[in-house]
Write a structure and sequence with these properties.
This protein has 225 residues and is mainly β. The protein folds into two domains: 12-141, Glucose Permease (Domain IIA), CATH 2.70.70.10; 174-224. Helices cover 2% and strands 40% of the residues. It has one helix and 17 strands.
Length: 225
């Protein structure tokens, strides 16, 4: 299906695309795409996620929503994110990877309904806390390239940023929007002074009134009240 690959069998089957979807009765923006092996080999054997291009590990995660995951920074300030590994990757922050290197075994940790790989791409990014998510498929099909090509030249590691003060925001909290920009960069009108946190996926926060979704915004643009 793809020219460039993100799982070790090189036989990806997309199960959920990038963009808006309804999950558990809540309309949300899926910031990446989900893939499995087309023959579903991940059910019977180890299928690994692999690096799309050369890069350096800049973040390693184990979150309630994303499970075990890794963020890799590539040339041109393009960040790729891979989540839901069975166990924590053996890679460490600062490790360099080459295109095709094994990253983590496909699993179902975090908020997941089955074994798969969640793969996302952020542009103009150096860490999980900045940049903009874009559709990963053009990069996998070879219509877009990372740093002028896939594989790309390895970037230099970036210094660690201090943790965000509002990283303790949790589902059910009341928050105030401090910058009226949605997660996808589109503006929106803040009609209310306070919103409820409905869902959290990394730095992406779905807010609304009660269970009625209003928007998805970056955690940096919220203030807990």
């Amino acid at each position: 299906m793809y020219k460039y690959h993100i799982i070790s069998t090189k036989n990806e089957l997309r199960t959920s695309p990038f963009g808006w979807r309804t999950l558990g009765g809540v309309r949300e923006h899926h910031d990446g795409l989900d893939v499995v092996d087309a023959k579903r080999l991940e059910k019977t054997s180890d299928v690994w996620s692999i690096a799309l291009a050369d890069g350096v590990v800049v973040d390693k995660h184990n979150g309630v929503s994303i499970g075990h995951g890794i963020d890799i920074l590539h040339a041109g300030n393009i960040l790729t994110r891979q989540y839901h590994f069975r166990t924590a990757s053996t890679l460490k922050v600062g490790d360099k990877v080459k295109a095709g290197d094994k990253i983590g075994i496909l699993g179902t940790t975090g908020r997941s309904t089955g074994i798969h790989l969640h793969f996302a791409v952020k542009v103009n990014s150096t860490r999980w806390s900045n940049g903009t998510f874009v559709d990963p498929e053009p990069y996998l099909r070879g219509e877009k390239t990372i740093g002028g090509g896939s594989p790309a030249a390895s970037p230099q590691p970036v210094p660690a940023e201090p943790p965000q003060a509002n990283a303790e925001i949790a589902v059910g909290d009341k928050v105030r929007v401090v910058r009226a920009v949605q997660y996808n960069g589109e503006p929106f009108k803040t009609w209310y002074d306070r919103y409820d946190v409905i869902q959290i996926s990394g730095d992406r926060i779905v807010i609304g009134i009660g269970k009625i979704v209003t928007a998805a915004v970056n955690i940096r643009d919220l203030q807990k009240v």
